TrEMBL record:
One of its GO terms (biological process) is rejection of self pollen. This is S-protein homolog. The keyword Signal applies. Belongs to the plant self-incompatibility (S1) protein family. The keyword Signal applies. The gene is SPH1_0. One of its GO terms (cellular component) is extracellular region.
């Protein structure tokens, strides 16, 4: 082979190595996951009201990015009012593990509010209802 062919072959190999190196490097860049919260009403014949927001945004139930909390309330058939206020989403590792990923499912029942883990398919009671008027947000 002549000098020009060797130079072209070296350049071609360098381009291939760089291409695979760059594509490999791009795959290690973490993806930004979309975060979701879903709320289910498992109350017997009661309407569940809720209002969700963060420190900076009042978005309702949408894709979440950082820390969001909600105010929940309902009135049972005996006209007793119940409420609870707590974080429904956080980017903390422990919280993501409790959810089983970036999709958090909350279930409202008469005895409290449960967080459903999508990986283990189990619901764990996280919050009790408080009796009285709801907290204004």
């Amino acid at each position: 082979m002549n000098q020009r062919t060797i130079s072209q072959l070296s350049s071609f190999c360098l381009v291939i190595v760089l291409a695979f190196g760059i594509s490999g490097a791009l795959t290690v860049i973490p993806k930004f996951e979309k975060n979701h919260v879903r709320i289910f009403n498992n109350l017997d014949n009661s309407v569940l009201f809720y209002h969700c927001k963060s420190k900076d945004n009042d978005l309702g139930l949408r894709n979440l990015q950082t820390l969001f909390f909600c105010n929940f309330w309902y009135t049972n058939s005996s006209k007793i009012k119940f409420h609870a206020v707590f974080d429904v989403f956080s980017t903390a590792v422990e919280f993501i593990q409790d959810c089983g990923g970036y999709y958090c499912i909350w279930i409202a029942k008469e005895d409290g509010l449960y967080l459903y883990n999508v990986e283990t398919k189990t619901a764990v009671k996280k919050h009790d209802w408080e009796i009285g008027l709801q907290i204004k947000m």
